[in-house]
Design brief:
Length: 479
Amino acid sequence: MTSLMKTDLFIAGEWVRPEGLGTIEVRNPSTGALLAEVPKGGEAEADAAIHAANAALPAWSALTAKARATILRRWHDLIMENQEELAQLLTAEQGKPIAEARGEIAYGAAFFDWYADEAKRIYGDIIPSNAPDRRLFALRQPIGVVAAITPWNFPMAMIPRKAAPALAAGCTMVLKPASATPLSALALAELGARAGVPAGVFNVVPGAAGAVGDRLATHPLVRKLTFTGSTEVGRKLMARAADTIKKLSLELGGNAPVVVFDDADLEAAVAGTIATKFRNMGQTCVCANRIYVQAGIHDRFVAALVKAVEAMPLGDGMADGIQQGPLIDMAAVAKCEAHIADALEHGAHVATGGGRHALGGSFFDPTVLTGATADMLIAHEETFGPVAPVFRFETEAEALAAANDTEFGLAAYFFTRDAARIWRFGEALEYGIVGVNTGATSYEGAPFGGWKASGLGREGGHEGITEFLETKYLCIAGL
């Protein structure tokens, strides 16, 4: 892990180590071992990165789309050439199983490949003129300096999902990565530099949210803020960005329902639920938080789900065959315990798991609860851990009302073999992403984002690049 293990800030194409602001200790969640100490950036470092991005903006945006695309594709290639080293780095600082980490590297790299093509498809419009001596045009131009704040659960995916379209559009970027996983961000910056990304176009400043994050949200040179994280933090950033009228993309919290109808393929429903609930130990914004199962299939589904959960190997993510690693920290463990305790107090039962694993630390047993009801915390709050509460329902109308009974609207899933229900139920769900007969929906070519309190804007697909563009109407007279 030596060549990509960077432990300094990356500003204006240089590795910078500020003094006097303390350091971020990066520890392996599986072992507690200290991996590295990364210096904290502060307001001065954020300002330096913003000014570097602003200085680099004219030349980068003036490059042809093809030239920018060539650099982005080279970045993609370098990520894939270093996939194993990046996966080991990711597993070491985040804890997820190595096989899952390899998948995340490939998924993140795919955004550079996708947007290398999309850079060449930023089209304008010719508008029919309202006068014979006029020609009217609508141009799409880069919005400017972009600030990005990314989470710890998928650093190798969330950073490319923001950086690739921003840079493809001709914008420059300052990134504040999560303090738990700065090494992944810094490794990506190193590979970007090797790919030929010019100095100042992509900058990385780890540090405290109150210093770096606040400066990014309020600085007048930053024209766009893109954030992935909790709804609570998203609300605060939205308020902070209001004074400078920044364009915002907010990918926020979720409370995803899974609905399993009596006519579902049982095997597919269990596999899909496992895929969405227990990926990254349940630490995803789109993972199942509420599992609604129709009465006729309920008992068979629970038995099959428990069997599948108990078959998942748990341990250090570096070990071969491991499917469940540790939670990110002890606060995540405490939240799982609180949700389970509340559910049990309100009448739920533990079908499997239910507490901390014998390995200690932040390892937690994958858990299935039965008898879940709407008055439990777990029905309304995002657990962000490997706890699967199962609710019983009778009718489709009941399931729809329960699924939509939340302020969130990021992802939802349902399983049925009724073709009419697929359209009827899918269109009635109040969510930005709906998986039908699958628990895995992510694809770089599709739009990702939520309704209601789950955020604003979209990432991925052709929609993703429009988030970083402004429209200019050009009226030419006197012709």
